[in-house]
Design goal:
The structure is a single chain. This protein is α/β, with parallel strands linked by helices and 310 residues long. It has a domain at 54-191 and 224-268: P-loop containing nucleotide triphosphate hydrolases (Rossmann fold, 3-Layer(aba) Sandwich). The chain has 13 helices and five strands. Strands 2-3-1-4-5 form a five-stranded parallel beta sheet, sandwiched between helices. 28% of the residues are buried.
Length: 310
């Protein structure tokens, strides 16, 4: 009996509420038009797949050897959906065979052209590289990935066998084909030169701090206008510097990427073996290099360009 009374009371309340709503709207009000049906989830997915994605710029990172560029490039590779091609320079001759036996590189068209019995012009080498790069970029982007090139500027600017003034840089080559976004990373030139000596990569003559700085300044002049980020800042706060790199390169920043650097494998990983990122003391400076520091105008100009103490 109590349940029946409760049910009737509820019905009466609903009826009263309905009457109040009718009175508020007005008796002559037109009934509301039915809402447009929402598209099904499947239709929304199909529409998203059919949409043409905006073209991506070709992204690149540039630096000299022994400047911390590998670890900073690893941070980019640790971002979601990025692919970094490391140490790229299609006009490099550093990999050419010096003896009778040619290197085994069955997947490398550029190397095969370089080792041809009949010389192949640089223009053909660059064209081959750009066509392959175009296909790789399009294929990766179709799968939702973003391509980044890591330059091998050492091949051009730090080898006696190359006239760096007369050939294009990697950035100049790709700019003829793509919209580009680039960053340049920098380390104190004394630290990078000392590391170059330890690795026995001083491949220019004279092998002095002055000559190194002259070549470094030429490299910087050819990359005028490219945003510069500093390795020393990266060792203090890798996440903050990575965020700035992402801003310059139009990439989505991930706060977890800096923690994943140790899991990334990349060519050119010649730095100190400790995986921990942080400031490190300078290597011991040989007496002859110490003397050159005070006598080199090019070195002092290079340091002054970025506010480094010579």
């Amino acid at each position: 009996m109590e349940r029946d009374l409760s049910s009737r009371a509820l019905l009466n309340t609903l009826d009263e509420t309905l009457e109040m709503l009718r009175a508020h709207v007005g008796a002559d009000a037109e009934p509301a038009a039915p809402a447009e049906p929402l598209p099904s989830l499947l239709e929304q997915c199909e529409a998203a797949c059919d949409a043409i994605p905006a073209p991506q710029p070709l992204r690149s990172i540039h630096h000299f050897a022994c400047t911390g560029g590998t670890v900073m490039s690893k941070a980019l590779f640790a971002l979601p959906n990025t692919v970094v091609l490391s140490e790229i320079d299609p006009l490099s001759t550093a990999m050419l065979a010096t003896g009778d036996k040619l290197p085994f590189a069955p997947t490398d068209l550029v190397a095969a052209l370089r080792h041809s019995v009949r010389p192949v012009e640089d223009e053909v080498i660059v064209a081959t590289f750009l066509e392959g790069l175009t296909a790789a970029k399009a294929g990766l982007e179709a799968g939702g990935r973003q391509l980044i090139l890591r330059d091998h500027a050492h091949s051009q600017f730090c080898r006696d066998s190359v006239d760096f003034d007369t050939r294009p840089t990697l950035r100049e080559m790709v700019a003829d084909r793509f919209e580009t976004r680039a960053v340049l990373t920098m380390r104190h030139p004394l630290d990078s030169f000392l590391s170059l000596m330890v690795n026995k990569w001083v491949q220019f003559t004279p092998g002095t701090l002055e000559e190194y700085a002259r070549r470094y300044l030429a490299f910087l002049d050819r990359h005028e206008g490219v945003p510069v980020l500093f390795y020393e800042d990266f060792t203090v706060d890798p996440g903050a510097v990575l965020r700035r790199m992402c801003d310059y390169l139009d990439l989505t920043f991930s706060p977890l990427a800096a923690d994943l650097i140790g899991a990334v494998r990349m060519s050119g990983d010649s730095g100190r073996s400790d995986a921990k990122i942080g400031p490190r003391p300078r290597r011991a400076v040989p007496e002859e290099i110490e003397a050159q520091r005070g006598e080199s105008p090019e070195y002092r100009a290079l340091c002054g360009r970025f506010g480094y103490a010579p």
